[in-house]
Design brief:
This protein has two domains: about 60 residues, Arc Repressor Mutant, subunit A (Orthogonal Bundle), CATH 1.10.10; about 170 residues, Chorismate lyase (3-Layer(aba) Sandwich), CATH 3.40.1410.10. It is about 30% helix and about 30% strand. The strands form three sheets. Strands 4-5-6-9-8-7 form a six-stranded antiparallel beta sheet. Strands 1-2 form a two-stranded antiparallel sheet. Strand 8 and strand 9 form a beta hairpin.
Length: about 240
Amino acid sequence: MPETARQIADDLRARIESGELQPGDRLPGEPSLVRTYGVAKMTANQALKILVSEGLAVARPGSGTYVREFRPIRRVANDRLSKSRWSSGRSIWSADVAQRPLVTDVQVYETEAPHQVGRLLNLDPGAPVIVRSRKFVVEDRPVQMATSYLPAELVRGTAIAQPNTGPGGSYARLAELGAEPVRFTEELRARMPSEEERSALNLTAGTPVVEICRTAFTEDDRPVEVNQMLLDAGSYVLEYRLNN
């Protein structure tokens, strides 16, 4: 791609990040960019496509390219997983979205643990798990798909095996079962989505996803949940607070 297209995209990105161009504002169109930068129309078009692929802008056919209006979700791992949150009846998701409209599509079922999940949960081959599959939609935008796996022998017949787990969610229910999560590990990987994932999250072409695999452990180091999450990278800021 011509370097000038990247330079134009850098200039427009700086104007967005500085606040000069606000969410919902129309970006300069191709004719304007051609005049301002003295480039070909194709180069101007490529510059706008860069911003769209980064998730900073959206193209509206017949209208133009606009600064994306969706405010990124700030996901602070330390806050959302703290016992003070779920033990007081608040959901983990409330740490991410506060009062923003949230819709969750939940499916719960029992099946044989996939190989990797069984290994992480220290289960025997073929052992059953309760699966909680969710799709999260914030302000009418799909932002995440998450699938949790929990040992069926531990949670079968409890609220965890129901769509609505009650105040505090699964971690509060695990604590009631004597399997309170006290330690977590998260592994992150950025990649491009499959076609099925791109469709499910309604991603624009070129938008990557962040894959997070979290394992929850009890005080005696027993793994009690594996949660595999897929995030729209353009919808999130991931924050981790580390202390020495």
